[in-house]
Design a protein that fits this description.
Blueprint lengths: L4 E5 L1 E4 L9 E4 L2 H9 L3 E5 L5 H9 L3 E4 L23 H16 L4 E4 L1 H9 L4 E2 L23 E5 L13 E4 L6 E2 L6 E6 L5 E6 L6 E4 L3 H4 L4 H12 L2
Parallel strand pairs: 1-4, 1-5, 5-6, 6-13
Antiparallel strand pairs: 2-3, 7-10, 8-9, 8-11, 11-12, 12-13
Helix pairs in contact: 2-3
The structure holds manganese (II) ion.
């Protein structure tokens, strides 16, 4: 274990059948916690807040930031109206995590975006999101798998000229897939490093960042117990913390 404090951005879950129906609780899936622990880090959940001073104080304690999965990013954040198949959004969480990214970048912290976290990181840098798989200009493979989270269902390829090439032991492997939206236009300073066979962006990095800033569209935290490449990603992140 190191003493590196790794913040994982939280979300809300609403109490439905417990003591306080309708109450919001701050949470992340345990897989994020376990992944950080396995990689030698000390995980902390960063609860959603819209108080900027609190966000700055949160980030000031961190050695690394993981942006977790979750709701669709509000299309207004990338200049679009919501289309019919856009899923539920959480605008306060968007704002909160955009501030987290800004503060973390100013501190040159390593940043790892996962699924929604990748999409939000792209939006932060001026990129766009395709609001549903069916809106792509060609037919895509299935990216919203009904299978269990630990089952890799589609393959990906790593670009030899990307930072991912030195993170993974293989340039082709399989991943799980739980996204109905995909990266559209890539944001400024971002470089695609992992792609699915249909061309969908499954990973990118920020080449202009003075530090480690990478994002993946799959869920390595759900694969980390069984999947070497998932472990290698968290290990690379921790080495930069
Ligand atoms: Mn996918």
């Amino acid at each position: 274990m190191t003493n590196k404090l790794i913040g994982v951005s939280g979300s809300w879950i609403t109490d439905s059948d417990g003591m306080f129906p309708g109450y919001h609780r701050s949470y992340v899936n345990d897989d994020y916690i376990d992944s950080v622990v396995q990689a030698g880090g000390v995980p902390v959940i960063i609860p959603v807040t819209t108080d900027l001073a609190v966000i700055r104080a949160q980030v000031a304690h961190l050695d690394g930031l993981i942006l977790s999965g979750g709701q669709d990013v509000n299309p207004l954040e990338y200049g679009e109206q919501p289309r019919q198949k856009c899923g539920p959004t959480f605008p306060d969480r968007d704002w909160f995590e955009l501030q987290l990214i800004k503060e973390a970048e100013q501190r040159h912290l390593p940043i790892l975006g996962i699924c929604r976290g990748a999409q939000l990181l792209n939006v932060y840098h001026g990129g766009t999101i395709i609001q549903d798989l069916s809106y792509a200009d060609h037919e895509l493979i299935r990216h919203s798998q009904p299978d269990q989270p630990t089952l890799p269902t589609h393959s990906v390829r790593v670009s030899a000229d990307s930072p991912f090439a030195s993170i993974f032991d293989q340039n082709e492997f399989t991943v799980n897939s739980f996204h109905h939206q995909v990266i559209g236009e890539l944001g400024a300073d971002l470089q695609v490093g992992i792609t699915a066979p249909d061309g969908v962006v499954e990973g990118f990095s920020n080449f202009a960042y003075d530090g480690f800033e990478v994002a993946v569209q799959f869920h390595p935290e759900m694969l980390h117990r069984t999947h070497l490449q998932a472990q290698q990603l968290f290990k690379a992140f921790m080495e930069n913390a």
